[in-house]
Specification:
The structure holds 2 protein chains of 2 kinds. Helix content of chain A is 32%, strand content 25%. Chain A is α/β, with parallel strands linked by helices. Chain A has an 8-stranded mixed beta sheet, with helices on both faces. In chain A, strands 1-7-4-5-6-3-2 form a 7-stranded antiparallel beta sheet, with helices on one face. In chain A, strand 16, helix 3 and strand 17 form a beta-alpha-beta unit. Chain B is an alpha+beta fold. In chain B, helix 5 crosses helix 6 and helix 13 runs antiparallel to helix 15. Chains A and B meet through strand 5, strand 11, strand 19, helix 6 and helix 7 of A and strand 1, helix 1, helix 4, helix 6 and helix 9 of B. Chain A: Pfam families: ATP-synt_ab, ATP-synt_VA_C. Chain A: InterPro entries: ATP-synt_VA_C (IPR055190), ATPase_a/bsu_AS (IPR020003), ATPase_F1/V1/A1_a/bsu_nucl-bd (IPR000194), P-loop_NTPase (IPR027417), V-ATPase_su_B/beta (IPR022879). Chain A: GO terms for molecular function: ATP binding; proton-transporting ATP synthase activity, rotational mechanism. Chain A: It comes from Halochromatium salexigens.
Chain lengths: 459, 600
């Protein structure tokens, strides 16, 4: 089919253009729009009929003149060119250079929309990744092929934590590091710069592909950015056999862009104005991570989700939590006490931890130590609550022990330096040190053998 | 109008995501349609003059207006015959393992693969009671094939056919397409009978009559079996916020329940969790038969990134296969994880059609559709294979963990067993996080009959006593949180201790603990009885004046908490021995105390 060009734009609103009388245009195809003043924009067909086509304009529709607009249907899906040269580059949501260097040229081009992985082709993620952070490694372990988001709030150090994980993440007893795909959506200039400097100073820049859409860039581009980034991640993982860690920040801005466009399209809103398909849409992104049978590479994902007003039940963190395999939740309370990283372990969870830890992966006592720490901390938080009402002096000796444990745990186990890379052994040994403050008989989650081997208390 | 005389060729008019409008006069509502050059399959959901609205099961990227659309003449149907067990199918019953062989790691569009293997030979054994000339009807058993080591697959006359058997094939190896018999109906038409037949998924399969459930579905999970039991043929829901452990509860039921057949529908959930089932079930042993679990299991998978319309279909596809095995006289349990994703698929389609939303964007027909789905569960008398049942257990994923949202609240009105998962319990890593205050079961009395006959006559009394103690615990904990534990009497503190013993020693049960992941009804009762015996004996001592601190640190208490992981289901005698041992210890304390007091 020849490439068609039309001057029949009939309506412009909120990132969308409607074009009349355009027979045979394919749903999902790429569109180039000339603004009549020498500028071009990119778009995608999101509703098609012979009478009228609706186009999503990635650069937004500000400043367009209906009379002057030319629309060209390129007769191809939205694609990105892929080659190993892509490592070390900084691109926008459409895969175009942002670093002033020439565009990527390659005969390998893939549609960014992706396809669903056949569940029968997946293999179950079970290789423990050591991040060097005790609250993650010890209590919410990450494994290769997992998607584990960081739930955060404005002003919390999620970026520093993400950067530390990028720096430190490695397989136990292995040096091979990850290739990083970094996708920034709607972040501030300062945050983007922080990551760029961070990658440069830790010397991983050659191994990073950055996709950047800043807070003042067009929001519609955020809809395609994570898809483009993941297409690159899939190429690195399954064509080039690399282990890829995808860091996406901030999914909240992505979802807000989706809402903006959905509203313009007139979609029926479900919760808080977000469209009913927000879940499916987020799943299309998150589910692209994983492991595939007989493929060497893998995709592990750490999206950052900032919870509006620290509300974990807000649709974005809520739906994310239903798709991802757990979550790391940051706490403002811990942050205000100066504890870094302020990981609140109670609502944090890793669903894939069970098969990545234990005798052959980390250490045989790991599963039960984690369970015991959680149980003690839950009781300790209750006690702390009680103490704030009746005063610590009123507590029994048993309860005062829990109170002290809560403080020790926050300061020593949760808290660690930004440059501190704790091995899993160090994390588990520290856990035993804290656990041993309790009498042996009260540690019902641990087995007799484990207690005999590691318990350091004197009774 | 017979299909052949009807025009079944039309063209595509409008593409709006998965919703495609076609121009094809004469097509029927519910009919399957093949769209475009790729041959994407969809289903007519509404008609308007010449035009029909079609929901497609695959992504419509690249489809153009003007491309052909073809009516296929039948509604969405599944193939029912030997070869289903052990398989994994997508939301419209395409075999995912075969798709992987044909299209690689990603699912290519427009693949039309039948659900059942055409090549495989099955050893057919005709029903010895049948011979030509005998009357047969819907559900009549023509014979059987051994589908897996433990499951005998009965070959049934499809519902809707009735008449006289004119021919029945001898024992031998047949492919599923082979004719194994002929039936002549009242009009004198002859029908070929095969090892399989098709059935439209949105139409419940018929049966002779509906029966009440009588025996509990044993899941090996204490909080379920001993506290909120489910009957075979019942319907239940597991609602819970993310991270509360819905999937683990569902998987535990799939692993350990005493159903003959397990159908696991992963509806809009995580790919990696389905793989967990796929990889672990072929290794795991069925505790009842000693065979591999996969031999009685089949999976329907529509992960969250697979097309949303097929997600809506997946629940019906699963249910129809469940009813088919029920019609052979089996007890089937179907797990749907999650019905919320199914409801959201309804919402998405209804939104694209511009239908008026009622609550949170859901269409007005949400509650009636939900009710119709759950009503397909039940225990029935089949036509020719005795009693059979379908137990349906749906996970519900309420947004923000809010149980008042439409899907949870409508579900709650329909189901009989409600296992409410609690975020607070999950955060404290109390698993399964089934909340004993908000959960309920309408089956306690029916289950009690079974427990009293099979396990122990005190079951219902012990159950009631523990729930009362747990309720008392909740009350007292509120007081403690206000004024501290010192305000409580010794008896009240012992009540807290007793409740803690039930929580830790009975209710908590780790799916990862090799010894305790499955717990037989006998072991369940022994543990419950152990905890309550300690509580009862202790209370007698406290009433005599023994201080509570004297009892709190007894080593038997710690032992009772650990007991569940120390003895497996074959070592119930060790648990009852521990019960006697603690009773003796308490008796010794009583004697010592009485002696001290008589000395005074």
């Amino acid at each position: 089919m020849s490439i068609k060009e039309y001057r029949t734009a009939s309506e412009v609103r909120g990132g969308l253009i409607l074009v009349r009388d355009t027979p045979g245009v394919a749903f999902g195809d790429r569109v180039r729009i000339s603004d009549g003043r020498g500028g071009t924009r990119d778009g995608q067909v999101i509703r098609a009929s012979n009478e009228e086509v609706m186009i999503l304009v990635f650069e937004g529709t500000d400043d367009l003149d209906l009379e002057a607009v030319w629309v060209r249907f390129l007769d191809e899906p939205v694609e990105i060119a892929l080659s190993p040269e892509i490592l070390g580059r900084e691109l926008n949501g459409l895969g175009e250079p942002r670093d002033g260097r020439p565009p990527i040229l390659s005969h390998i081009r893939r549609a960014v929309g992706g396809a669903a992985i056949n569940p029968a082709a997946r293999s179950y993620p079970r290789e423990f990744i050591q991040t060097g952070i005790s609250t993650i490694d010890g209590l919410n372990s990450l494994v290769r092929g997992q998607k584990l988001p960081i739930f955060s709030g404005s002003g919390l150090p999620h970026n520093r934590l993400a950067a530390q994980i990028v720096r430190q993440a490695k397989l136990k007893d292995e040096d091979s590091s990850f290739s990083i795909v970094f996708a920034a959506m709607g972040v501030s200039y300062a945050d983007a710069k922080f990551f760029r400097d961070e990658f440069a100073s830790s010397g991983v820049l050659r191994n990073v592909v950055m996709f950047v859409n800043l807070a003042d860039d067009p929001p519609v581009e955020r809809l395609t950015l994570p898809r483009t980034a993941l297409t690159v991640a899939e190429y690195l993982a399954y064509d080039l056999d690399r282990h890829v860690l995808v860091v996406m920040t901030d999914m909240t801005y992505y979802a807000e862009a989706l809402r903006e466009v959905a509203t313009a399209k007139g979609d029926v809103p479900a919760r808080k104005g977000y469209p009913g398909y927000l879940y499916s849409d987020l799943a299309e992104i998150y589910e692209r991570c994983g492991r595939i049978h007989e493929r060497h590479g893998s995709i592990t994902m750490m999206p950052v989700v900032s919870m509006p007003s620290d509300d974990i039940t807000h649709p974005i963190p809520d739906l994310t939590g239903y798709i991802t395999e757990g979550q790391i939740v940051l706490s403002r309370e811990l942050h205000n006490q100066g504890i870094y990283p302020p990981v609140h372990i109670s609502p944090s969870l890793s669903r894939l931890m069970k098969d990545g830890i234990g005798k052959d992966d980390t250490r045989e006592d790991h599963p039960k130590v984690a369970a015991q720490l959680y149980a003690l901390y839950a009781r300790a938080l209750e006690t702390r609550n009680l103490a704030s009402i009746i005063g610590a002096d009123e507590l029994s000796e048993r309860d005062r022990r829990y109170l002290k444990f809560a403080d020790d745990f926050d300061q020593r186990f949760v808290g660690q330096g930004e440059a501190e890379d704790r091995s899993i052994e160090a994390t588990l040994n520290l856990a035993w040190e804290l656990i041993s403050a309790f009498p042996r008989d009260s540690l019902t989650r641990l087995s007799e053998t484990e207690l005999a081997k590691y318990y350091q208390g004197n009774d | 109008m017979p299909m052949s005389e009807r025009n079944n060729q039309g063209f595509v008019r409008i593409i709006n995501g998965p919703i495609v409008t076609i121009d094809l006069p004469g097509i029927r509502s519910g009919e399957q349609v093949k769209i475009g050059e790729l041959g994407l399959v969809g289903e007519v959901i509404s008609l308007n003059g010449r035009e029909a609205t079609v929901q497609t099961y695959e992504s419509t990227d690249g489809v153009r207006p003007g491309e052909p659309a073809e009516g296929l003449g039948w509604p969405l149907s599944v193939e029912l015959g030997p070869g289903l067990l052990g398989g994994i199918f997508d939301g419209i019953q395409r075999p995912l393992e075969k798709i992987a062989l044909q299209s690689g790691d990603y699912i290519r569009r427009g693949l039309a693969l039948p659900g059942l293997d055409r090549e495989r030979q099955w050893a057919f054994e005709p029903n010895p009671e049948l011979e030509p000339g005998k009357p047969i009807g819907p559900g009549s058993v023509l014979g059987s094939v051994q589908e897996t080591e433990t499951i005998l697959h009965k070959i049934l006359v499809p519902p809707g056919l009735e008449g006289e058997l004119t021919e029945l094939a001898p024992a031998g190896d047949y492919e599923i397409e082979a004719t194994i018999g002929h039936l002549r109906d009242r009009q004198g038409h002859s029908h070929r009978l095969k090892l399989f037949h098709r059935w439209p998924v949105r139409k419940p399969r018929p049966y002779r009559r509906r029966d009440d459930g009588i025996s509990p579905l044993i899941t090996g999970q204490r909080v379920i079996d001993s506290f909120f039991p489910q009957l075979k043929g019942g319907k239940g829901a597991v609602p819970g916020p993310f991270g509360a452990g819905k999937t683990v509860v569902q998987q535990q039921i799939a692993r350990w329940s005493n159903a003959d057949i397990v159908i696991y529908v992963g509806c809009g959930e995580r790919g990696n969790e389905l793989v967990d089932v796929l990889e672990s079930f072929p290794q795991l042993e069925d505790p009842y038969t000693g065979r591999k679990l996969m031999e009685k299991t089949l999976l329907v998978a529509n992960t969250s990134n697979m097309p949303v319309v097929a997600r809506e279909a997946s629940i019906y596809v699963g249910l129809t296969m469940a009813e088919y095995y029920r019609d052979m006289g089996y007890d089937v349990v179907m797990l749907a994880d999650s019905t919320s994703r199914w409801a959201e698929a309804l919402r998405e389609v209804s939104g694209r059609l511009g239908q008026m939303p009622v609550e949170e964007g859901y269409p007005a027909y949400l509650s009636s559709r939900l009710a119709a789905v759950y009503e397909r569960a039940g225990r029935v008398e089949t036509y020719d294979a005795g009693p059979g049942s379908v137990t349906l257990i749906g996970a519900v994923s309420p947004p923000g963990g809010d149980f008042s949202e439409p899907v949870t609240s409508h579900t709650k009105d329909i189901i009989e067993t409600f296992w409410a998962l609690s975020k607070e319990l999950a955060d404290a890593r109390h698993y399964p996080s089934i909340d004993w205050v908000t959960s309920f079961s309408a089956h306690v009395h029916a289950a009690a009959e079974w427990w009293h006959k099979e396990v122990d006559r005190r079951w219902e009394a012990r159950r009631t006593q523990s729930l009362a103690l747990l309720a008392r615990d909740a009350e007292l904990s509120r007081i403690v949180n206000l004024v501290g534990p010192e305000a409580l009497s010794d008896a009240q503190r012992w009540q807290l201790e007793g409740a803690a013993l039930i929580k830790e020693g009975v209710l908590q049960q780790s799916a990862l603990d090799e010894v305790d992941t499955f717990c037989s009804p006998q072991k369940q009762f022994a543990l419950l009885d152990l905890a309550l015996s300690i509580y009862d004996k202790g209370m007698t001592l406290i009433e005599l004046g023994v201080p509570v601190s004297h009892l709190q640190d007894l080593p038997q208490l710690a032992k009772a908490r650990r007991c569940k992981s120390m003895y497996n289901s074959d070592q119930v005698a060790s648990i009852t021995a521990l019960t006697r041992e603690t009773e003796d210890a308490f008796e010794a304390i009583r004697l010592e105390y009485a002696k001290q007091h008589s000395d005074d």
